[in-house]
Design brief:
CATH class: Alpha Beta
Helix content: 40-55%
Largest sheet: 7 strands, mixed
Number of strands: 7
Number of helices: 10
Order of helices and strands: EEHEHEHEHHHHEHEHH
Structural class: alpha/beta
Number of domains: 1
Distance between the termini: 30 Å
Length: about 240
């Protein structure tokens, strides 16, 4: 799994986990603001970006790889994990299964409520996978994620590189995700974030995450859909920094 580090080598570590269909480049504006005080680690999840040759297999396998990244990047003290969408589910799993590696978690737009007809949705996604290589289709998808024009070329390249197996495996893991039992025992601090314009299922998921871990903080971001770090990167970076302070 590709990873890159930015900022002072001896500073506290923040691991940024991107969503499905994008890659580590989505964090560039946030990274620029956080890397002055923190050691920012950005990965390309399996099957995405510079990890495209390593197909996505499962959340469990990916979390194992991320735990190894954290153990290497922050061997002395636990790190902060920030995840968006697919990456937010992975952040929850990391906090639940490896609390010795995670001090704080920022969970942005994590779906935890399973949807009906998952099999049908996966079959449709598999059939539509070749369309992701078509720029016109990728641009339609980019609107749903609020990809800014400055990142469109990165998005088109990432979308074109995602294989059918990665799409089906990552989407299947996303749609079937449940809150892990260990989340309720996570001893660190957590912030759960959702956009005010997101679907009802995302608000229900945020509520469930908070209910399972009552000490967590819930933030509803006014005017945002499913793309908070991309829609408001400066605000997002400042909010994360304030939460850590």
């Amino acid at each position: 799994m590709f990873s890159a580090s930015f900022g002072p080598a001896d500073a506290p570590v923040i691991l940024l986990l991107h969503g499905g269909g994008v890659a580590g480049w989505m964090w560039d504006p946030v990274r620029d603001r956080l890397a002055t005080e923190y050691r920012v680690v950005i990965v390309d999840l399996p099957g995405h970006g510079r990890s495209v040759d390593e197909p996505y297999a499962s959340h469990a396998e990916t979390v194992g790889g991320l735990a190894r990244v954290l153990a290497e990047e922050s061997p002395v003290r636990p790190a902060v994990v920030v995840g968006f969408s697919l990456g937010a589910q992975l952040a929850v799993l990391l906090a639940a299964e490896h609390p010795n590696l995670v001090d704080r978690a920022v969970v942005v737009s994590a779906q935890t409520v399973p949807l009906p007809f998952t099999g049908t949705m996966l079959a449709l996604a598999s059939a539509a996978a070749p369309l992701a290589r078509r720029p016109w289709f990728a641009r339609l998808q980019a609107r749903e994620l609020f990809i800014p024009p400055t990142m469109m070329s990165n998005y088109l390249a990432t979308s074109a590189g995602i294989t059918r197996s990665t799409l089906v495996a990552s989407l299947g893991a996303n749609l079937s995700f449940r809150i892990p039992e260990g989340w309720s025992r996570f001893p660190g601090a957590a912030m759960v974030m959702v956009g005010s314009e997101e679907r009802r299922v995302m608000h229900d998921s945020a509520d469930d995450l908070h209910e399972a871990l009552p000490a967590s903080i819930t933030v509803v971001v006014d005017g945002c859909g499913h793309g908070i770090p991309l829609q408001r990167p400066e605000w997002f970076a400042e909010t994360v920094a304030a939460f850590l302070a």
